């Protein structure tokens, strides 16, 4: 994406948000209680729009070159394999504590999946750290 186009879009967004902020600031100073309620909704809308813009620019940057697209697809594939593996090894039967608390089997399965993802990622980082240390020692 062209950097001048990006700068123009950013400048327009900043000016629009500043104008909206000034209007709500005057409404708040004037003592309009509804201005405060509306500003909460405005904050939610702005957070949603910022998230959409960030995701959009990220996707545009990923698709811009073939090499970054391939790397991203490989990383997504590895992430999906880790999630699938963690889901398959997660327990399906409720434990005694889960039964007493009243947790459903679906929630229990996904909680186990998330714990397994955490374990897999933790041990993956440890293995990568040890491998990196060994590689740097061998390279010297």
Approximate helicity band: over 70%
Number of strands: 0
Number of helices: 5
Mean pLDDT: 84
What structural class do you assign from the helix and strand content?
mainly alpha
Provide a quick synopsis of the model.
The chain has 140 residues and is an all-alpha fold. It has helices at residues 3-29, 33-64, 66-89, 96-101, 105-139.
Description:
There is one protein chain. The chain has 2 domains: 3-64; 68-139. Helices cover 89% and strands 0% of the residues. It has helices spanning 3-29, 33-64, 66-89, 96-101, 105-139. The mean pLDDT is 84. The chain has 5 helices and no strands.
Observed structural traits:
140 residues; mainly alpha; 2 domains; 0% strand
SSE map:
Layout lengths: L2 H27 L3 H32 L1 H24 L6 H6 L3 H35 L1
Helix pairs in contact: 1-2, 2-3, 3-5
